[in-house]
Amino acid sequence: MHYDPRRNDHGLPRDPFKALVAPRPIGWISTLDTDGRANLAPYSYFNAVSDHPHLVMFSSMGRKHSWANAEETGEFVCNLATYALREAMNITSAPAPAGESEFELAGLERAPSVVVKPPRVAASPVALECKTVKVQPLFNLEGEEARYTMVIGEVVHIHIDDAIIKDGFVSLAAAEPIARCGYMEYAHVSELFKMARPAT
Ligand SMILES: Cc1cc2nc3c(=O)[nH]c(=O)nc-3n(C[C@H](O)[C@H](O)[C@H](O)COP(=O)(O)O)c2cc1C
Q: I want to staple 126 with a disulfide (CB 3.0 to 4.6 A). Which of 43, 47, 80, 121 is the partner?
Protein backbone atom coordinates (compact mmCIF):
# COMPACT_ATOMS: atom_id res chain seq x y z
CA MET A 1 0.00 0.00 0.00
CA HIS A 2 0.96 3.63 -0.23
CA TYR A 3 -0.85 6.82 0.67
CA ASP A 4 -0.63 10.61 1.00
CA PRO A 5 0.15 11.48 4.65
CA ARG A 6 -1.12 15.02 4.11
CA ARG A 7 -4.56 13.59 3.33
CA ASN A 8 -4.07 10.60 5.64
CA ASP A 9 -6.03 8.45 3.17
CA HIS A 10 -4.45 5.21 4.42
CA GLY A 11 -7.80 3.53 5.01
CA LEU A 12 -6.50 1.96 8.23
CA PRO A 13 -8.37 2.29 11.53
CA ARG A 14 -5.51 4.39 13.02
CA ASP A 15 -2.85 6.68 11.59
CA PRO A 16 0.16 4.34 11.22
CA PHE A 17 2.80 7.13 11.19
CA LYS A 18 4.10 6.60 14.72
CA ALA A 19 4.41 2.84 14.06
CA LEU A 20 6.59 3.58 11.02
CA VAL A 21 9.26 5.68 12.75
CA ALA A 22 9.85 3.30 15.62
CA PRO A 23 10.98 2.28 18.11
CA ARG A 24 11.56 5.79 19.47
CA PRO A 25 13.56 6.37 22.65
CA ILE A 26 11.61 7.89 25.50
CA GLY A 27 12.89 11.06 27.10
CA TRP A 28 11.44 11.00 30.59
CA ILE A 29 11.66 14.71 31.22
CA SER A 30 11.90 16.17 34.73
CA THR A 31 11.61 19.92 35.21
CA LEU A 32 10.78 22.49 37.85
CA ASP A 33 8.21 25.22 37.39
CA THR A 34 9.08 28.81 38.30
CA ASP A 35 7.75 28.13 41.84
CA GLY A 36 10.19 25.21 42.19
CA ARG A 37 7.54 22.46 41.89
CA ALA A 38 8.72 19.27 40.19
CA ASN A 39 7.18 17.85 37.02
CA LEU A 40 7.86 14.57 35.21
CA ALA A 41 6.50 13.32 31.86
CA PRO A 42 7.53 10.96 29.03
CA TYR A 43 8.23 12.22 25.50
CA SER A 44 8.88 9.84 22.60
CA TYR A 45 9.41 12.61 20.10
CA PHE A 46 12.79 12.66 21.76
CA ASN A 47 16.31 12.00 20.62
CA ALA A 48 19.97 12.96 20.73
CA VAL A 49 20.72 15.14 17.73
CA SER A 50 24.44 15.97 18.18
CA ASP A 51 27.41 14.88 20.28
CA HIS A 52 29.57 17.94 19.44
CA PRO A 53 28.10 19.55 21.51
CA HIS A 54 25.84 17.03 23.25
CA LEU A 55 22.35 18.09 22.20
CA VAL A 56 19.00 16.41 22.80
CA MET A 57 15.50 17.46 21.85
CA PHE A 58 11.92 16.69 22.75
CA SER A 59 8.85 17.83 20.90
CA SER A 60 5.65 18.87 22.63
CA MET A 61 2.13 18.94 21.21
CA GLY A 62 1.07 22.30 22.55
CA ARG A 63 2.63 24.10 25.47
CA LYS A 64 2.66 21.28 28.03
CA HIS A 65 4.30 21.68 31.44
CA SER A 66 7.65 20.19 30.36
CA TRP A 67 8.04 22.67 27.50
CA ALA A 68 6.84 25.62 29.61
CA ASN A 69 9.18 24.72 32.49
CA ALA A 70 12.18 24.00 30.25
CA GLU A 71 11.65 27.36 28.55
CA GLU A 72 10.92 29.42 31.67
CA THR A 73 13.66 27.95 33.91
CA GLY A 74 16.12 27.03 31.13
CA GLU A 75 16.68 23.54 32.55
CA PHE A 76 15.45 19.96 32.21
CA VAL A 77 16.65 16.41 32.87
CA CYS A 78 16.16 13.41 30.54
CA ASN A 79 15.83 10.21 32.57
CA LEU A 80 16.08 6.81 30.91
CA ALA A 81 12.79 4.92 31.03
CA THR A 82 13.44 1.24 31.67
CA TYR A 83 11.38 -1.93 31.63
CA ALA A 84 11.42 -2.02 35.44
CA LEU A 85 10.02 1.54 35.52
CA ARG A 86 7.47 1.10 32.71
CA GLU A 87 4.35 1.37 34.89
CA ALA A 88 5.69 4.43 36.70
CA MET A 89 6.61 6.02 33.36
CA ASN A 90 3.08 5.45 32.14
CA ILE A 91 1.54 6.98 35.28
CA THR A 92 3.62 10.13 34.77
CA SER A 93 1.99 10.66 31.36
CA ALA A 94 -1.32 11.47 33.07
CA PRO A 95 -2.37 15.11 32.62
CA ALA A 96 -1.74 16.18 36.22
CA PRO A 97 -2.66 19.76 37.11
CA ALA A 98 0.20 22.29 37.16
CA GLY A 99 2.17 22.03 40.38
CA GLU A 100 1.03 18.47 41.17
CA SER A 101 4.16 16.37 40.97
CA GLU A 102 4.10 13.18 38.92
CA PHE A 103 7.03 11.92 41.06
CA GLU A 104 4.64 11.40 43.98
CA LEU A 105 1.79 10.28 41.72
CA ALA A 106 3.98 7.43 40.43
CA GLY A 107 5.68 6.71 43.77
CA LEU A 108 9.07 7.71 42.42
CA GLU A 109 11.93 8.95 44.58
CA ARG A 110 13.80 12.05 43.48
CA ALA A 111 17.58 12.31 43.41
CA PRO A 112 19.37 15.64 43.26
CA SER A 113 20.98 16.77 40.04
CA VAL A 114 24.49 18.24 40.10
CA VAL A 115 24.44 21.20 37.70
CA VAL A 116 20.73 21.91 37.17
CA LYS A 117 17.92 22.32 39.69
CA PRO A 118 15.29 19.80 38.48
CA PRO A 119 15.63 16.48 40.33
CA ARG A 120 16.24 13.24 38.46
CA VAL A 121 14.44 9.92 38.87
CA ALA A 122 16.49 8.09 41.51
CA ALA A 123 15.62 4.63 40.15
CA SER A 124 16.57 5.46 36.56
CA PRO A 125 20.05 4.24 35.60
CA VAL A 126 20.82 7.20 33.29
CA ALA A 127 20.06 10.90 33.58
CA LEU A 128 21.12 13.71 31.26
CA GLU A 129 21.09 17.12 32.94
CA CYS A 130 20.30 19.72 30.27
CA LYS A 131 20.16 23.46 29.79
CA THR A 132 17.68 24.73 27.23
CA VAL A 133 19.40 26.04 24.11
CA LYS A 134 16.40 26.81 21.92
CA VAL A 135 12.65 26.47 21.71
CA GLN A 136 12.07 25.83 18.02
CA PRO A 137 8.61 26.17 16.48
CA LEU A 138 7.99 23.67 13.63
CA PHE A 139 6.30 24.37 10.29
CA ASN A 140 4.78 22.54 7.31
CA LEU A 141 5.62 23.12 3.63
CA GLU A 142 3.26 26.09 3.45
CA GLY A 143 4.99 27.72 6.42
CA GLU A 144 2.03 27.09 8.73
CA GLU A 145 3.00 26.45 12.33
CA ALA A 146 2.87 22.80 13.44
CA ARG A 147 1.02 21.68 16.55
CA TYR A 148 4.37 20.53 17.91
CA THR A 149 7.27 22.63 19.18
CA MET A 150 10.78 21.29 19.66
CA VAL A 151 12.78 22.03 22.80
CA ILE A 152 16.52 21.61 22.32
CA GLY A 153 18.92 21.31 25.24
CA GLU A 154 22.63 20.92 25.76
CA VAL A 155 23.62 18.11 28.13
CA VAL A 156 25.72 19.64 30.90
CA HIS A 157 26.03 16.67 33.26
CA ILE A 158 25.51 12.92 32.93
CA HIS A 159 24.68 10.23 35.52
CA ILE A 160 25.23 6.53 34.79
CA ASP A 161 24.49 3.85 37.38
CA ASP A 162 27.77 1.92 37.86
CA ALA A 163 25.71 -1.30 37.78
CA ILE A 164 25.19 -0.93 34.01
CA ILE A 165 28.87 -0.34 33.23
CA LYS A 166 30.48 -3.66 32.26
CA ASP A 167 34.17 -3.80 31.34
CA GLY A 168 34.19 -0.07 30.68
CA PHE A 169 31.19 -0.08 28.35
CA VAL A 170 27.59 0.85 29.06
CA SER A 171 25.51 -2.32 28.94
CA LEU A 172 22.15 -1.27 27.54
CA ALA A 173 20.89 -4.81 27.89
CA ALA A 174 21.48 -4.47 31.65
CA ALA A 175 19.56 -1.16 31.74
CA GLU A 176 16.71 -2.55 29.60
CA PRO A 177 15.45 0.75 28.19
CA ILE A 178 11.95 0.82 26.75
CA ALA A 179 11.05 2.52 23.50
CA ARG A 180 7.78 3.68 21.97
CA CYS A 181 6.38 1.84 19.00
CA GLY A 182 3.04 2.61 17.37
CA TYR A 183 -0.39 2.42 18.97
CA MET A 184 -0.11 1.06 22.56
CA GLU A 185 3.04 -0.90 21.80
CA TYR A 186 6.50 -0.63 23.34
CA ALA A 187 9.78 -2.41 22.74
CA HIS A 188 12.45 -3.12 25.30
CA VAL A 189 16.12 -3.60 24.62
CA SER A 190 17.27 -6.93 26.00
CA GLU A 191 19.43 -8.33 23.24
CA LEU A 192 22.05 -6.54 21.16
CA PHE A 193 24.22 -7.49 18.19
CA LYS A 194 27.50 -6.02 17.00
CA MET A 195 28.51 -4.84 13.56
CA ALA A 196 31.68 -2.94 12.63
CA ARG A 197 31.45 -0.05 10.16
CA PRO A 198 33.20 -0.56 6.83
CA ALA A 199 36.82 0.65 6.84
CA THR A 200 37.20 4.05 5.16
C1 LIG B 1 5.44 6.83 26.02
C2 LIG B 1 4.82 8.18 25.85
C3 LIG B 1 5.40 9.09 24.98
C4 LIG B 1 4.86 10.38 24.82
N5 LIG B 1 5.45 11.24 23.95
C6 LIG B 1 4.96 12.49 23.80
C7 LIG B 1 5.60 13.41 22.92
O8 LIG B 1 6.61 13.12 22.28
N9 LIG B 1 5.07 14.67 22.82
C10 LIG B 1 3.96 15.04 23.52
O11 LIG B 1 3.54 16.20 23.38
N12 LIG B 1 3.35 14.20 24.39
C13 LIG B 1 3.83 12.94 24.55
N14 LIG B 1 3.22 12.06 25.42
C15 LIG B 1 2.12 12.54 26.26
C16 LIG B 1 2.66 13.32 27.47
O17 LIG B 1 3.50 12.50 28.28
C18 LIG B 1 1.47 13.81 28.32
O19 LIG B 1 0.70 14.73 27.56
C20 LIG B 1 1.89 14.44 29.64
O21 LIG B 1 0.75 14.68 30.41
C22 LIG B 1 2.65 15.74 29.45
O23 LIG B 1 3.03 16.17 30.72
P24 LIG B 1 3.54 17.63 31.07
O25 LIG B 1 2.40 18.60 30.74
O26 LIG B 1 3.81 17.53 32.55
O27 LIG B 1 4.76 17.90 30.25
C28 LIG B 1 3.71 10.76 25.58
C29 LIG B 1 3.12 9.83 26.45
C30 LIG B 1 3.67 8.55 26.59
C31 LIG B 1 3.02 7.57 27.53
A: 80
7: in domain: no
Residue nearest to atom 18 of ligand 1 (CA): 93
pTM, whole model, 2 decimals? 0.97
Please indicate whether residue 30, judged by its CB atom, sits closer than 6 Å to ligand 1.
Answer: no
Whose Cα sits closest to atom 21 in ligand 1?
Answer: 95
Of 72, 82, 65, the C-alpha closest to 30 is 65
Task: Output the CA 187–ligand 1 centroid distance in Å.
Answer: 17
6 assigned to some structural domain: no
Structural domain contains residue 11: no
The pLDDT score that the predictor gives to residue 150 is 98
The finding on whether 93 has its CB within 6 A of some atom of ligand 1 is yes
pLDDT reported for residue 182: 95
Catalogue the long-range contacts made by 184-190 (C-beta closer than 8 Å, 24 or more residues apart): 185/19, 186/23, 186/86, 187/22, 187/23, 188/82, 188/83, 188/86, 190/83
Question: What residues of the chain score a pLDDT lower than 50?
Answer: none
Q: What is the Å distance from ligand 1's center to 93 Cα?
A: 6
pLDDT digit string (tens) for 45-96?
Answer: 999 999 999 999 999 999 999 999 999 999 999 999 999 999 999 999 998 8
DSSP secondary structure letter of residue 116: S
Cβ–ligand 1 contact at 20 (below 6 Å): no
